[in-house]
User: Fold this.
Amino acid sequence: MRRRSLLVAGVVAALVVTALPAFAGASRHDSSAVPDATVKWTIGTDFTVGGTRFDGVFVQQTGLVYFLGFRTFADATDGSIWTYDPATRVFADTGVDMPVPISNYGIAALQDSRGLGLYVFGGRSSTGEILTTVQVYYPELNRAQVISSDPWPGTTPSGCVSLPAMGVAVVQNQAIVMGGASFSTSVPPCVDDNSSETWIFNPASAPGAKWTAGPPLTVARGYVTATVLQGRVYAIGGDQNSAGTLNAVSTVEAWKPFGGGWNDAAVADLPLGCDESAAFPATSGALRGITLAGCGQWPNALPDTYLYDPTGNAWSLVGSLREPVRNQAGVQLPGGTMLVVGGYDCPGNACLGDPTVLSENGKGQATGFAGVGSAHHTGAGRAATN
Assistant:
C-alpha cells in the first residue's frame, strides 16, 4: 500500500441524504432485495502509524475523532491516543497514552461527573493477556485513567475472562457490552470458549456498583459488530471459537434495553458469516437502516458493503470497499459520512501481517447498486491468536 505524509489531505465525502430506499419484499434470509441506494467508497488520508484491532469515535465538543491506541506494525501494541480532524483531514498524536495499552476494544462515549468520557472495557494487552481493566479518556481534559473500582466482569462458561472486543454500544448513557471469547493462546492460556453474556455499565452508579447483568445473547460468540438503531441494540455477526479456530457466523439479533431479551427470530441474518466489520446506523436518507462496511471472515476479509432495511427486514449488497480490510475502525462523522480507518490489508482476500495505513470514506447515493459482490465463501480460519 502506498504511504503518503501524515499531513497530506485525503478525501472526506459528505453523505448525500436523499429519498428512502425502496426494497422488494424479502424473506428473513433473503439478500436478493435491491434497494435504490449505493455506497461509494473513496480513499482518504493515510494513518501512517498503522492501526488495527481498534475503534474510534467522533466527539462533537471538540470536532475531532479519537482513537485510544491500536495494534500496529510487527504486532506491537501502541497505547498512544490519536485524533483525526474531519475539517482539515489530518491525523495527530495527542501526546497522551492510555494507562494500559490495549487492542481489541470498542469505545463507549458516556457522560459522567467529569464530563464526556470515552470508556473501554478489557481488551488484549501487549503480552497477549485478556484484561479486565476498565479505562476512560476525557477528550476535553486530554487525560486518561483506570476505573479500578469496576473491572470488566465478563467470563466464558469455562470461567475465563472474555474478550468482548468491539461488541460495545451505548443506550441512554449506558454501555451495553455483549458476547466475547476466550483463548487457549492467551497469556496465561485459558480455554477456547464463547460467551453469551450481556453486561450494562452505568457511569452514574456508585463505585463498585456500575455493572449489572443484562439478558444473554441467543447465540454465544465474540467479535460481534454492534450498533444502535431507533433505540434497539443490534448484535451483528461475530465469531465462534471452536477448538482454536474462529468461524464467522451470520446471526443478527436485536434487543431494546432495558426490558425483555435479545430477539434472533425476528431479525434477518446476514447473507453470509461476517466478523469484526464496521456498522453505521441511519434513521433517514438513502442509507436508512444499518450499513455494514466490509465482511471479515477470519483470517480473511471481503470488501462487500451491506444495507439492512428494518422495515423490509432484509440485507442487500450496496457497494464495495476500495480495499478489503478486517479489524478496521469505523467512525460516523457529522452529516452521515462513514469513515473506515486501518485494519489488516487483505488483497486477494489474504490478510497480511501488518496493518494498512489506508482510510476510506463512504458516500450514500440514491441509485441502485449495479456492482458485483465478492465471491462469498465460509471463512474458517487458522488457529486464533486474538
Remarks:
- The chain has one domain: 38-365.
- Residues 38-365 form a domain with the Neuraminidase fold (CATH 2.120.10.80).
- The chain is about 0% helix and 40% strand.
